[in-house]
Amino acid sequence: MEFKGMEEEAALPVSPMGYYFNSSVMSVSILCVLEIEVAIDDSPAFSLLHDVFLPISPRFSSIIVADEKGVKKWKKFEVNLKDHVKVPIFPSGKSPQFYEKCLQDYLSKISMEELPQSQPLWQLHIIKYATNNAAGTLIFKLHHALGDGFSLMGALLSCLQRADDPSKPLTFPSVKTRPILDNNNNNMHSRFSNVLRFFSSMFNTASDFYCSIVKSSLIEDDQTPIRSGNDVVRWGPRSTATMAFPLHQIKQIKANLGATINDVVAGIIFLGIRLYMQEVSKESSNLNSTAMVLLNTRMFRSFSSVKEMVKPDAKSPWGNHFAFLHVPIPKFTDSGFSDPLEFIKKSQQIIKSKRSSLGVYLTAKLLEAVDKFRGSEAAAKYVHGTLKNSSMGISNMIGPMEQVSVANQPVKGLYFLVPGLPLSLFVTVVSYMEKLRVAIGVEDGFIDSQKLKSCMENAYDMIIKATTSATTT
């Protein structure tokens, strides 16, 4: 099928992961929500999109088409910006609480809507009403086929500047690399430790690879207050809630436990989820539940400029470069209420063993084999099955340390959502201005987003109190 504006130049193929997320079983997008500090002036929107956003990647001005063999490719397309910019109209003269509800309903609405395949796969929604958290809201809706969160966050940041001084570059929290094993042959203890690590890694790899296969095709998580098992959940209405935690307190917990920030955040989320499950149904708090954690597989995890990301030999390349990590959610029988910090320690232990495994890479190779011998649609169904049989998903991103602005309008806060997945619960985390913003997107009518938010905040308070007690004793 031809579309007006196509160029006859060679079309780039859609990446395998891009195909899986834009298939008959899934259509996954990312909603990047920017809370603006002042009343929105939308007059620069079209020039910003034309001059800054579109040149970032050719995919932003391309559509996906299938050739005569059914292979999907990116094809250049003439972009009409008016088709991509949406400015909804709500009743005038209402309170911020009223417009907050309008915003939540609007997020649910656009989460359910698939992006039209007949035009480039992105939209900008401009909400010009003051809510509880902002004077106005910008929502970028970007299809996951365009790239993963790392790529799309880099693209978004290319449209922003530092609010204090636009001439200065944005800075990000440092990301420590993993320690390199000591290969000193004269150090017997080091050699023995390396041998143990090797066999431990091999065991974890075999176990994780086996569990991944079984999880994708045979065994699914128990049905609980966070997992309905409803296959049409990806198209249903979503309810959203967000919360913010001070980053310096997260770092304090991290230092006291010798953990990572990801371990602490996972512990808070998992404890909050188990508290919610127990509050809804006491029996469910000890049922089997698995989180699918999106793991960035790039060699370097700090953001590069978009110019660097699109180079053929880029160390942090553009596209979809991530894998799913199966993480069992700890049960109360494992840690109990006596010490909430044990929940973080248990999460740390699980995640550490998973990270020492090559299971995610073997699973990626298996997916390539399925794609090659059975076709991309079969591989997409394999990914869908893996997600559907799990209870929740988690994705985290690092954001700028300084306040940013878009077209000289300061951004008060930001968060992102990932609709379109066959999961009743998806949690996202992003750092910004020394805070961690946690957003939960849930199956509306099945999970009470406000109650779950309250349970996560309660989990955070419990862990902070336990950390303070441990420090003073």
Automatic annotation (TrEMBL):
Substrates-to-products reaction catalysed: an acyl-CoA + a 1,2-diacyl-sn-glycerol = a triacyl-sn-glycerol + CoA; a long chain fatty alcohol + a fatty acyl-CoA = a long-chain alcohol wax ester + CoA
One MF term in the entry's GO annotations: long-chain-alcohol O-fatty-acyltransferase activity
Keywords carried by this UniProt record: Acyltransferase, Endoplasmic reticulum, Transferase
Domain of life where this protein originates: Eukaryota
Location relative to the cell: Cell membrane; Endoplasmic reticulum membrane
Chief location of this protein within or outside the cell: membrane
Pathway(s) of this molecule: Glycerolipid metabolism; triacylglycerol biosynthesis; Lipid metabolism
Gene Ontology terms: biological process: triglyceride biosynthetic process
GO cellular component: endoplasmic reticulum membrane; plasma membrane
UniProt keyword annotation of Acyltransferase present: yes
Regions crossing the membrane: none
Membrane topology: Single-pass membrane protein
Domain annotation O-acyltransferase WSD1-like N-terminal: ranges: 74-265
Keyword Disulfide bond on entry: no
Domain O-acyltransferase WSD1 C-terminal intervals: 318-463
InterPro entries the record matches: O-acyltransferase_WSD1-like, O-acyltransferase_WSD1_C, O-acyltransferase_WSD1_N
Family: In the N-terminal section; belongs to the long-chain O-acyltransferase family.
Name of the protein this chain belongs to: Diacylglycerol O-acyltransferase
